Amino acid sequence: MQKFFGFLVVALILSACGGKDEVGEFKNDWLGNEIKIRQLTDRKVEGVVCHLAYFDRGVWDRIGKGNWFENPSNSSISCLQSGPITVGNIDLDKSGEEVFDQSQSLVFKQLAVRRIYDENTDSLMYVSFTRKPVDGSAKMSLSTVPLYGADVTWTRGKPGSTD
Question: Is the pLDDT of residue 133 over 70?
Fold first, then answer.
C-alpha cells in the first residue's frame, strides 16, 4: 500500500512538470527514462529564447533504484537571439539573477537557470545548474548570447555607455 501511495505521488509530480513550454521529449532507454526539452523565455529580456534539456526518471527506474522522489542533476542549455532584443531592468552584478527554477525532487533539489551580463564582451550568459543543499552539484551547462552588433534596446540605458 505504501508503494502505491509513493507511485501516486510521483505520478502527480511528473504530470505537473509538463506544460506548454515543453517542446520535446523522448525515451532514452527501456526503463522509461526520458530526456525532456523545455523552451524558456526570460521575462526581462525579450528576443532571447533558451532550450533546457534535462533527465526525467521513469517509473521502472524509480522502482529499481529506489530514491523515488529525485531526478539526476544532469541538464544542458542553449540560448539564441529569436528577434530584436529588449533588455529590461536586469541585475548587473557578477551573480546575475535566477530566471527559472524547477523542482527535481520532492523536497530540496532544484534545477535552475541564472542570467549574467558580461559587460566586457557585451553578452548575456545563461547557466543551468542544480541546487542541492547537502552537496551541491558540479554539473552545469553554459550558453552565451552575444549582444554586440545585434538589434538591442536597453530600457534603462546600456551599462557603461555615456549616452
Answer: no
Is 8 within the bounds of a domain? yes
In a domain, 65, yes or no: yes
**Whole-angstrom distance, CA of residue 42 vs CA of residue 22:** 15
pLDDT range class, residue 41, cuts 50, 70, 90? very high
Separation CA 115–CA 128 (nearest Å): 9
Task: Please state, in angstroms and rounded to a whole number, the distance separating the CA atoms of residues 99 and 105.
Answer: 19
Cell of 88: 529590461
Question: Which residue reads 542544480 in cell numbers?
Answer: 130
Separation of alpha carbons 130 and 57, rounded Å? 16
In a domain? residue 161: no
- Asked if 161 contacts 147 with a C-beta cutoff of 8 angstroms, the reply is no
Higher pLDDT: 5 or 95? It is 95
Give the C-alpha separation, 21 to 25, whole Å.
Answer: 12
Beta bridge partners of 147: none
Please list, in sequence order, all residues whose beta carbon lies within 8 angstroms of the beta carbon of residue 149, skipping any fewer than 6 positions away.
none
How many structural domains is the chain composed of? 1
Residues in the chain: 163
